Amino acid sequence: MTYVPAADRYEKMVYRRCGKSGVKLPAVSLGLWHNFGHDTPHDTKVDICRTAFDHGITHFDLANNYGPPAGAAEHAFGSILASDFKNHRDELMISSKAGYEMWDGPYGEWGSRKYLVSSCDQSLKRMGLDYVDIFYSHRFDPDTPLEETMGALDYIVRSGRALYAGISSYNAERTREAVAILKDLGTPCLIHQPSYNMLNRWVERDGLKDTLNELGVGSIAFTPLAQGMLTKKYLGGIPEGSRASQGKSLFPSMISDHAIKNIKKLNEIAESRGQTLAQMAIAWVLRGGGITTALIGASKPSQVIDCAGAVGNLAFTSDELALIDTYANEEEINLWATSSETTN
User: Fold this and answer.
1) Which one of 17, 199, 240, 258 is most buried, counting C-beta atoms within 10 A?
2) Full-model pTM
């Protein structure tokens, strides 16, 4: 049966301006980091994407190495684009990234011009696209001049491979440098993608959040749910089939007794707001307008619906924020600290 998107999809979502650009992004975006590889049935992937679009989620975020195996997520999304979204391409914001290891040899990772341009071409081929809306440098490369990496992003935009350039997991200092280089080249940095949630606040300590607002650069926070920790999933332990049980990127050691005790208190606060814990966690990331959009992941359509419902209550009282701070203690969960040149 031919897919027909929900007629009221744009009424269900809130859209926020991305920095000082003309682009608006949904308050909740969908990332395909997990659950879009060969380990997930294709029908499930289709259902997740359809549900997202039906709820006004127009931004789909990928990277060259998402899978498993690497590249599989882009292949899968390309198939979904062809089967379901081919008449809706201009309603979508599609992004990809390059920076982590993708192929063997000295040219298969980091931030060289050769790697970024080649990777972008491969991503476009896998997805069957002429261009992506946003292409990112996925991580800072300490051994490649930043001028080369940003120059590659500028070339990718000017050559029509992408409409906008972005960076991910750069700290505040490196972000200032990258944004300045791109500005001089005439290709402004549209957006930054850092990890950020109640249990991982490095963007506040580093000053990145304030820096982005000062520079007029948009932001998309990945892991707003701390890879599922800020949901009800782990309140009773580690369930079979969960990300922590599979040891993918959330390890059992991260689900400490101390963390669970505090997360249970956060869940009580969410219930008092009439929200699920996931909805409150997303609303918290978006509070005050400092973050443009929260980038969620999902293993089933119901999770997308739950997260999209966060836009129903994005406001917090000062008392609520203070109470959240009492229990939202930072945990050792920032897997991207090395890229950001931070300690955690």
Assistant:
1) 199
2) 0.93
